[in-house]
Structure formats: C-alpha cells, structure tokens
Design goal:
The complex is a heterotrimer of chains A (320), B (610) and C (319). Chain A is 72% helix and 0% strand. Chain A is mainly α. Chain A starts with a helix and ends in a 6-residue tail after the last helix. Chain B has a 7-stranded mixed sheet with strand order 7-8-9-1-10-21-11, with helices on one face. Chain B has 610 residues and is of the alpha+beta class. The longest helix of chain B is centred in the first third of the chain and has 21 residues. Chain C is built from 12 helices and no strands. In chain C, helix 4 runs parallel beside helix 12, helix 7 crosses helix 9 and helix 10 crosses helix 11. Chain C is globular, with a radius of gyration of 24 Å. With 319 residues, chain C is an all-alpha fold. Chain C starts with a helix and ends in a 7-residue tail after the last helix. At the B-C interface, helix 1, helix 2, helix 6, helix 7 and strand 9 of B face helix 2, helix 4, helix 6, helix 7 and helix 9 of C.
Chain lengths: 320, 610, 319
C-alpha cells in the first residue's frame, strides 16, 4: 500500500479546496501537505521558470497597454507591413496596425479563454470520470455512453446550432462581450472533457482495487472521502497533462470559432486569430505570424512545466 | 485524441472558412456561399476589363493543332461533385462539366454571343427572334456528334428542356427555363422556343453557363425523381456524354476529374491537349501558390486572396501570371429600412416597423459619404476590385473603369455637416443622438478575411462622423442559406447594415434590377425569401422596372437601367463599394485563354494551348 | 468477461440509436442550405431553391426525416449525396483508402516515436533529453497543423522544389517508380500529422510512466535484484499502458474520420475532407453516414479499451 495515503489522510487540507484553509496551514510551523508541496515545487527549476514566464506573460498582457501606447485598431495604410522597429517593436500588419498592441490585447482574451475553458473541461471530465470509475456498474455504463455520444458528435453543425440558439439571449443577459465569452468558454469546455473523463475513469478502475482503498473502506471512511481524498490525488498525473494540453487547444479552438462566426466580434484580435489571419503572410511579413505563434507556444510550454511541477509537488508518493 | 479530433474538425472548418473567405469579398465561398462569385456575370468589355496579365487573348489557332500537347493541369480550390450541368450545386460543377457539355451559344468577355452548337446567333434582323419577342428559333450545326458517335439533333435540345421542366428533376438551372411556353423541334436541326409573354432577353435559355445540352439517349429515363435516385441516372450525372472538346476518363466526386481529347470534336484542329486534369480542393491562397510560386499547375481558378498576399506571390513567384476579367459583381452595403430590434418579436423587420434612423435620408447619405471606397478597393482588393459609385459598371452602361468612380470620394466634413443639419448632435461619448435615438449600428456580413477587414475600415470611417458600429460575421453557409428558420441569413436581415456581393448573371440586367422592387420585400409572409432584403419601398423605382420589362428598344433599355441604378444610389438604398473583377492564375507558358465573366471561365478551353 | 462483452454489445444498440437521433437532430436543426453556394446568385432564385429543397425532402419535419433515414438504413440504404447524387457509401469507399493510408501511417509513426521518447523522458526526468523532448512535443502541440503544413510547403515545395504539395489521388502503385512517387507525396502530410500527434502522446506516456516508476511493485522488483531495464520495460511499462491504451484505442476511430486540416492543405481526397465539405454544404446524408460510422467505431473501440484494461490489469473486474 502506498505509504502515500496515510500522509494525505493526516493532513487536514482537502485537495479539493485550494482556498483559504491553505494559508492557515502554511502559516503553521508544522509541515503540512501544502507547505510541503510548495517546498517541492520551488525545487523544481523548470516549474519555477515556467511560473515566472507565465506570470510575466499575464502581467504583460494586462499591464502592457498602460506602458505601451500603440493603438491596436488604428488603421494606417502608409505603415502597412513594416518590419519590427523602434516605433513598432513587433512590426505592423497589412492594415498598418501595431502588432505589439494587438498581441497584448489579444493575449488577454486568449489567456482567459484558454484558462477558463481548460478549467471547465478538466473539472467536468474529472467529475464524470471519477464517478463512473468509482461507482462502476450501471452508472459507469450510462456515463460512458454519454461520453461516447459526445465523442461522436459532429462539432461544427453543433456549434452552429448552439450559437444560433444562445447567442442573442446571452448577449442580452450579460452584454456583448461577457455573453460571448461565456458562450465560447462553455462550448470549448463542454466539447473537450471526454479525454479527461476516460483517463480518470481508467485510473479509478485500477486504483479502487488497490489495498489502500480497501483499507480505507475497512476503516469506515466515507465513499466521497475515499473518492476525492484518497483516490483522486493519485490520478493527478494524467489529469494535469490533459489540462495543460487543454490550454493550448482552447486558445487555438477559439480562433476556429471566430472563423465560424461564433467567436468574438471580428475586430477583437486574439492570438489564434492573429496566427490564422497572418499565415499567408509568412513569406514576406513573418512577424505577423511568428509573434502570436511564439506566445501561444510559450504559454503552453510554461503552463506545462508548471503542471509538471504541481504534479510532482502534489503527488503524495514523491518525496523529493 | 478526442480533443485533437475536435479541434482538427474545427480547424478544418477554418481552413475552409478562410478559404472561402479569403476569397475575397466574394462571397463566401466554398461552401455554400459563394455564390456570387460563381456565377458572376460579367464582363464587359475589354476596355473595361483590364486584363491584367499578358493577355493572350483568344488566339484562334494554336501552334500545333489537335492533340499536340500533353496534359493541361487545372486547379479549383472547390472540388466538383457532379458533372451534370443542370444539377450543379456550385460554379466548380458548372465549369467542370463545360469541357464536356456545351450550350447552343456562349458569351464572350465583351458580352457578345458566340455560337457553339448553333449555326448562328438568332436576331430580329436574321429572323431568328420574332419581331414581338415571343419566340426565338435556333438553327443547329449539322456536323456535331456526341462523343459516343451518335448525331446531335434538335431532339436533344427539346429533351434538355423537358428534363428541367419537370420540377421533380430539381434542376438548379430552372431559372433559365422560366416563362417558356413550348420548345419544339421544327426539323432535325431547328429548335423553336416560344415564350408565354414577350421576352426582352430571348437568349435566356440554352446559352452560357446553365444552358448545356444533355444527350437524350443517356438521360431519357432520368426525368423527374429518377434523376437523383435511379442508379443509372446517378452514374450518368457523374459521366455525361457530351459534344465538347474533351470527354471523361475518370471522375472522383469532390476530388479530381480527368478528361481526354474527344476525337469527334467538330473542329479538326482542336483541342491542343491530349489530357486535362482538373483537381479540386484546398483553399485559394494555396492555389495561388501552386500556380504562381511552385508552378505545379497551369491554371488556377478564382484566386480570391487578399491583395497584399496576391501581389507578393505574383511578383515573387515567377511561375505564373494573374489573369483579371470583369463580371457584373459589386460588393455593396445594403441598408435595412425596417426595424430589426429583437424586442419587437414577430414584428421584427416587418414593413410596418420603419427603422428608427436609417429612414432618414440624410443619415444614409452621411454613411455613404464617410466611406473611403478608394482605400478599400486599393488596399484590400488590389487587382480584384475597383472603387465604384455605380452598380452597372460595365458596358454598355459604363464606358470605362475610370468612369465608375466619380463624385463619391470620401467626404467626412460633408457627412458631418449633413448629420448636424438633420439635428443629430454628439453626446458625451462622441456618438450622435437625436430625440433619445443613438446612431448605433449592427453591421453583419459573412465570414471572410477580406470582408472582416472591410468591416473594420468602415467602422473606423463611421466613428469619425459619430456613428457607433458593432460588427458581426456569420458563417457563409448560414448567411447565404435560405432556411426559413435561420435568423442570420441575408433574407431575414436582422441587422442594420449588411454587406455582400451580387450582380446580374447575364449581360441583360432586367431580372437583377427588378429584384429590388417594393413588392419583392423580404418579409415573414414570404418566409423571408423576397429578393429585396433591404425592404426598400420606392414607387418611382417600381414604375421604372415595369417600363424596363416592357421596353424592347435596346438603347432605351440601357437608359432606363441607368435611371434605376441612379435611383438606388441617390436614395441610398444600397451603397456600392467595390466592383469586382475576377482573378485567375495562369502559368507563363499557357496561351489562348480568354475567360468570360458572363460565362464559365473554361468556356473556350478548346482554344487553350502551350 | 465473455458475458461482459456480450452485455456491452447488446447495450450498444440502444446507445447507437440514441447517438444517431441526437446527431440527426443537430444536423437538421442547425442552420444551413445545400444550395448556399448559389448564395446571392440571381440565376438560382428563391423559388428554385425552395423547389430543390422540397425535392430533397428537406421540408419534412426533422423527426419524420429521421424515421425515413433509419428505416432506409435497416434496409441497407444509406441515402445519396445531395451534392453528387451518388450513394453515400460509394463516396466513402472511394475515399477510405487515402485516409487510412495517410492518417494510419501517421498514427503508427507517432506511436512508434512517442513510446520510446516518453519512456526515456520518464526514466531520466528533467535531463537534457527530456527537456528537448518536452520542447519539441510542445512545439508540435501548440503549432496548429495549418501552420506546420504551410511551413513545410514553403520549404520543400516552393524553395527547394523537392516535394509535390498537390496529392495525386489517381496514382496507382504498380512498380518501384510509382511507389517512390507515392512515398514522396505522403511525406509532408504524414510529417505534419505525426508531429502534431506525437507531441501529446509523448506527454501522456511520460506521465503514465512517472506515475508508476516509484510504485511499490517497482521497488520490490528492484529489490529482487532485477536490472533497471527489466523493471522499466517489463513491469512499469506494462502498468503504464492502461491510460495510454485508452488514448490509443480512442484514437483509432479518428483514423477513419481523417485529418481534416491536413487533408485540405495537401488536397488529399480523404474522409475528413469529404466530411467538412459536406458539412459546409449541408449535405446531410453524407455527414450523417460518416458521423454514424464514426460513432459505431467509437463505441466499439471503447469496448476494446475496457477489455484491454482487464487484460493488462487482472485486478480490474467487471461485474
């Protein structure tokens, strides 16, 4: 049995709540799960580097426009397709707009869409997979058939249908920007949870037969506690991988949605959209594509290293 | 992997969309949409028509006669799916079938009829067209054989009419067969078409793109529902027997068509190539690369690519030329005269609900004046667009390209003055208001890179006169769809302004111009299928349409058409933006082509040589 | 196990019926028009479009159309395509070989690359090799295929003029020379796809291996004096395969649907290309057939994955 579980059992922090309780625990001198985790995370050099890069990206897109006064929407044909220069550090696009300003504006949308959609997909997938794998039997059958259904759905017509059903009412309820954000994030999240669910379920299937689970049962620990406190932490590896891959996929999916007319209004630049629109300029104005492409890559890479670090830090079995 | 699948699905769509889009303004394309481009009609005169590339214009005699060349490689970024011209679902099908099936007469780039299967073009002078325009009599060539060796006769022409006259056949070319009373064979080589009423455009049927003659022997049992359901007919739709310069070797729907020389073709010196490969699929920018940069193909259809990209490819590629030819298409803004406010529920967009501010002529005039058409045409469309102040930008209505952009330069000051004069004053946020109504517009179009950029430019222009604009883009297959339950299409027009391309498909503009009359307003009662989707009501225009329909004198007809066009522009029901010639790509050594905007791009493929 | 499989197979019938109903409803209710290509084209006036919709049976309510579709399906009739008016199955049969060839090869290649890389990365985490592999995996994953495809075309077709980028689907491999041509035209699409798939697969293999390397049984095996190689390959690897097998099995149906973007870029007449064009053209019978066959494969390969768990991990019991 795993040595791991006792330690999880002993700490009072539930892995599911990363909120307030954590701080209290960190403050305590005794080593808790979270202070342990933080200590281990810090040792993970790539993870720290990833976190720093990601933070810089986030700060850059949020605070950047305060420092950089370029106008992302000002059209000026006299300046079109200029290579990077002091005036335009990332060059200009075919309509003479400042690429840096557009990348900063687009980054806000892309990062928030990527993170939010990933959270939705991962949470949904983990819940469904955990319930199916843990309870088994007919619950498992039904949930997995629903997963099959989602895997088999034709995505594009479904999107067209959803937009046609919900765009106007969301727009009215939440306003143009928020409404569309909610729609997009939900749609991407709701269409991408299946892999996570299948992975979590398969891990649960194999873990629930393990001795530590039987021991917990024998001790009279409640089902929910077993599920979320004992088994779930052991499945974090694949979940985190799927989640980190999900951010990049969501960022790019968003650009696809824009092209279906489902995305943000056409004048909102997002990274995916910049990449897509710039692709044909690759031979003669590579800066239009390389910047957004590089930033998507950097985001995915840094989130992935953060994920690796988190996994190692949270994994009760690893004792770095 | 499921994620990958989803995203790849979507991405695919994207690629598609882009492609479509890319297309310039065109209508969107690929899919569904595009139509406009498709059929576009077009062109006028050579004068007007700036043919860009070194134009090889129809050199009638290829250097070395029949079968001297190897393979002609043609690339369409939409793939043909059917070769029966009358069941075609897009231009790609119409064009791909044109190598095999021919009409009685084609239309050249100048708008002149060129006999194909006919001996000569019937006119009033030669007695072919009745004095009262109630009938037209075609004399057929006697030396034409189908590629299976049987003779081509009047029975085939009559049969083609019977085939499409049955609504169950579901011909997509039915419009060409409207208003026909009878089609009869006077003898083996003479066909007479009688109209129900005098028809000022008697060449409507059996000509150009949708006039291909199909073989009676092959399709005899395919009239009605059988056209799509019977196995033999399904096979025939994919492998029609024709009279054209090439015949079919192999066809993979949605992918590639392979043709070989038809030895029975009537002109002993043509065609030049032994074999033709027409490959479909991909997107327009990569088609442009294939012909201009990589030299992988000889001809690439409809290069709807942003100007900046296209010009770079053409100048740096070195493998091919751009070929520009005119159509009647104009990219335009349509103005909604009814109120699209969703709060109105069922009354939305009905004629009983006038638009809160677009009914004010001064507002419409100001919107038109604020737009910088020159920038849109030159910067975004490049070789595929000319700024225009008129919809009839081709001869005989316009003399030259220089003629069509006069007196509609951007004038922000004048636009602001008009709005001030009309009592629209700027609020704290810079947006004009009058009696509590804000000048705030919802502006929709199809998803297409070029269109989205145009939208942004126009939004910036309107911001300068204190008008706020919200942009919306709709997938082409939805925007141009006719599904009555789809609120996002051009028929419902639940926005304040919309933008797309259209134009008359034939040199005669009557049917097109009369599509905007008051009675054709698109309303709930007609399931939003009226052609006048601005719901513009103008009795003067309606009267001009009646006059045009009744007038048979060509000069007077031109005059009336000009008046109608001027009325649309002066009342600002629609704002013409860009006249849209089409751009194709040809390899440097290809010669003899002369693409026509009034007919298929491949109408004269028998003349092509290297 | 036998009873379990039988039960799952029987259960598959209502599942598939349910899936087909939902798919059909989505296709029928989503806006679109088979004739939208003729969009604003006045030569196909609204009445004509209406007539054509009528003749294609598009004016019936969707549940009646579903019922008709289903009863025809039981007779083995999958309907005909609106765009080409040929039986849907003929179209699919024509395209399947290309898809299986290109997508299947790419899938194999990425499995063959991802598994060893994932294992080495997991055994030596945060080594130079691992960091390089991670970086490449993420380039592969975060760069969309339309972009990698374009880069390859620019380099190999435009600059070097070495590889064709228009796929010749009429090429028949009969001798060495045609074989070489076939390989040449497959290089770029296979590379694009493999690059994309290898990225995420490597990550999953690595993660699964990392889960198991510190496990008790691995320690026990090491304590017994088994060499590290045997421990990794024989013990850890086998146990790590459970989540990986899930992914691989779930990925097999996608070989059938093809790789839409890649097929479009290189103009390969595969199923993915057919699907996307049919969706754009609202060619419902074709979309319905492809998605339904895909659903059957998904259900079937999920079953296979579940059965494989049992084989790989005898402790998993199905009741």
């Amino acid at each position: 049995m795993s040595e791991a579980n006792p330690s999880v059992g002993n700490t009072s922090a539930a892995p599911t709540t990363l909120g307030g309780a954590t701080l209290a625990e960190v403050a305590r001198p005794r080593r808790s799960l979270w202070s342990d985790a933080w200590r281990r995370f810090r040792r993970h050099r790539m993870a720290v580097a990833g976190a720093v890069v990601f933070l810089l990206l986030a700060i850059g897109v949020i605070a950047g426009p305060v420092v950089w006064h370029g106008d992302p929407r000002k059209i000026d044909f006299a300046r079109s397709l200029q290579p990077p220069s002091r005036v335009h550090p990332m060059g200009t696009d075919d309509l003479g707009r400042d690429v840096l300003a557009r990348v900063m504006l687009g980054g806000r949308v892309s990062l928030s869409v990527g993170m939010a959609a990933m959270l939705i997909a991962t949470t949904l997938g983990t819940l469904i997979g955990a319930v199916a794998g843990f309870l088994g039997g007919s619950v498992d059958s039904i949930l997995m058939r629903i997963t099959d259904l989602f895997l088999a759905l034709p995505v594009v017509p479904l999107l067209l249908l959803l937009i046609f059903l919900f765009r106007d009412s969301l727009r009215r309820t939440f306003g143009a920007e928020t409404g569309i954000f909610i729609l997009i994030v939900t749609v991407i999240g709701a269409l991408n949870w299946m892999t996570v669910a299948r992975l979590v379920r398969s891990s649960f299937l194999s873990l629930k037969q393990k001795e530590f689970v039987e021991a917990a049962h024998a001790l009279g620990v409640g089902e929910l506690t077993i599920m979320f406190r004992h088994i779930l932490p052991n499945t974090l590896g694949p979940i985190i991988v799927a989640a980190t891959l999900g951010v990049g996929a969501a960022i790019i999916t968003e650009s696809v949605l824009s092209f279906l007319g489902l995305g943000f209004p056409p004048d909102t630049p997002t990274w995916g959209r910049l990449l897509y629109e710039g692709q044909n300029f690759l031979d003669f104005a590579p800066w239009m594509v390389l910047w957004p492409g590089f930033l998507i890559f950097l985001t995915v890479l840094s989130i992935n290293y953060i994920g690796d670090g988190l996994r190692d830090a949270l994994d009760p079995r690893s004792r770095l | 992997m499921s994620q990958q699948r989803i995203w790849s699905l979507m991405a695919a769509v994207l690629v598609g969309a882009i492609a479509l889009a890319a297309c310039g303004g065109a209508p969107p394309a690929q899919a569904p949409t595009t139509a406009p481009a498709t059929t576009a009609p077009a062109s006028p005169t050579a004068a007007v028509a700036a043919t860009a590339a070194p134009a090889p214009t129809a050199a009638p005699t290829p250097s070395a006669g029949r079968g001297a060349g190897d393979t002609l490689r043609i690339l369409y970024w939409q793939a043909p799916t059917i070769l029966n011209n009358h069941l075609a679902v897009g231009t790609k099908d119409v064009d791909a079938s044109r190598l095999i099936l021919e009409p009685l007469a084609a239309i050249d780039p100048e708008g002149n009829f060129v006999p194909m299967l006919a001996e000569e073009i019937p006119t009033v002078e030669n007695g072919g067209v009745a004095q009262d325009f109630t009938s037209i009599t075609w004399k057929l060539r006697k030396d034409v054989q189908w590629s299976d060796g049987s003779p081509f006769t009047a029975a085939d022409v009559v049969f083609t009419y019977e085939y499409c006259a049955d609504p169950k056949t579901a011909c997509t070319s039915v419009a060409a067969f409207r208003g026909i009373k009878t089609v009869e064979a006077l003898d083996e080589y003479t066909v007479k078409v009688t109209w129900e009423a005098p028809n000022s455009y008697p060449y409507q049927v059996f000509t150009s793109q949708r006039g291909a003659i199909i073989q009676k022997a092959q399709f005899e049992d395919c009239v009605g529902e059988a056209a799509s359901t019977a196995a033999d007919c399904q096979a025939a739709n994919l492998a029609p027997i024709g009279t054209g310069p090439y015949k079919l070797v192999e066809f993979k729907p949605g992918d590639v068509v392979i043709y070989e020389l038809n030895e029975r073709y009537r002109d002993p010196d043509k065609p030049f190539f032994k074999r033709v490969e027409l490959k479909g699929g991909g997107d327009a920018p990569s088609a442009a690369r294939a012909v201009l940069q990589a030299g992988e193909v000889d001809w690439a259809w409809n290069l709807q690519v942003e100007a900046a990209v296209l010009q770079q490819l053409a100048s740096q590629g070195g493998q091919g030329n751009l070929v520009t030819y005119n159509t009647a298409n104009v990219e335009r803004l349509l103005i909604n005269f009814t109120n699209p406010d969703p709060a109105l529920g069922d009354e939305r967009g009905q004629l009983s609900q006038p638009h809160p501010f677009l009914t004010d002529l001064k507002v419409r005039q100001a919107l038109a004046l604020a737009i910088d058409r020159k920038a849109i045409a030159e910067q975004l469309y490049g070789p595929s667009g000319y700024p225009t102040c008129t919809f009839l930008w081709y001869p005989p209505f316009a003399e030259s390209i220089a003629d069509i952009f006069k007196d509609c330069d951007q004038d922000i000051d004048e636009a602001n003055r008009l709005l001030d004069e009309a009592g629209w004053t700027r609020g704290a946020d810079g947006i004009r208001v009058k009696n509590g109504v804000r000048l705030s517009l919802l502006f929709q179009t199809s998803v297409n890179t070029l269109r989205q950029k145009t939208q942004e430019l126009i939004k910036a222009n309107w911001a300068e006169i204190g008008v706020e604009t919200e942009l919306k883009s709709v997938d082409g297959s939805v925007f141009f769809g006719s599904d009555p339950g789809n609120p996002d299409n051009i028929g419902h027009f639940f926005a304040d302004i919309q933008m797309y391309t259209t134009g008359a498909p034939e040199p005669d503009p009557t049917a097109h111009l009369c599509g905007w009359v008051s009675s054709a307003a698109s309303q709930k009662e007609n399931e939003w299928r009226g052609t006048n989707n601005m719901r513009w009501q103008n009795t003067e225009y309606d009267a001009l349409c009646d006059q045009l329909r009744a007038e048979l004198d060509p000069d007077k007809r031109v005059e009336i058409a000009r008046q109608m066009d001027a009325l649309i522009v002066s009342d600002v029901a629609m704002i013409p933006l860009v006249a849209r010639p089409r751009v194709a790509g040809a390899s440097k050594d290809l010669q003899g082509y002369n693409p026509s905007g009034w007919d298929s791009e491949l109408w004269d493929v028998a003349n092509w040589y290297k | 196990m036998g009873r379990y499989i039988l039960r799952r197979l029987i259960f598959a019938v209502p599942t598939l019926l349910g899936i087909s109903l939902v798919i059909f409803a989505i296709l029928a209710l989503a806006p679109g028009d088979p004739l939208a290509q003729f969009a604003a084209d006045p030569s196909v006036p609204p009445e004509a479009r209406e007539q054509i919709r009528e003749s294609l049976g598009l004016n019936d309510p969707w549940y009646i159309r579903y019922f008709k579709w289903l009863t025809a399906l039981f007779r083995g009739d999958w309907g005909y395509s609106f765009a080409s008016r040929v039986p849907v199955l003929d179209l699919i049969a024509q395209r399947l070989p290309q898809t299986l060839q290109v997508v299947g090869v790419a899938y194999l290649v990425s499995i063959l690359i991802a598994i060893p890389i994932g294992i080495i990365s997991a055994v030596r985490p945060y080594s130079l090799f691992d960091n390089l592999a991670t970086t490449f995996a993420f380039i592969g994953f975060s760069v969309p295929t339309f972009f990698t495809g374009l880069v390859l075309i620019l380099i190999f077709s435009v600059r070097l003029n070495a590889l064709p980028f228009i796929y010749d689907s009429t090429l028949r491999v009969t001798d060495w020379e045609t074989f070489v041509r076939q390989v040449r035209q497959m290089i770029m699409p296979v590379t694009v796809l493999a690059l994309f798939q290898t990225g995420s697969l490597t990550r999953f293999v690595r993660a699964a291996m990392m889960e198991n390397l510190p496990a008790d049984y691995a320690r026990t095996a090491r304590a017994k004096g088994l060499s590290e190689q045997v421990v990794v390959l024989r013990h850890v690897f086998r146990n790590s395969m459970i989540p990986v097998v899930t992914l691989l099995a779930l990925g097999v149906p996608t070989i059938f649907t093809g790789a839409i973007v890649t097929e479009q870029i290189f103009r390969i007449n595969g199923i993915g290309e057919l699907l996307i064009k049919s969706i754009q053209n609202s060619d419902t019978p074709v979309v319905m057939a492809i998605t339904f066959i895909f659903a059957v494969l998904v259900v079937f390969f999920n079953l296979i994955a579940d059965v494989l768990y049992g084989v790989l991990d005898p402790r998993i019991r199905y009741d």
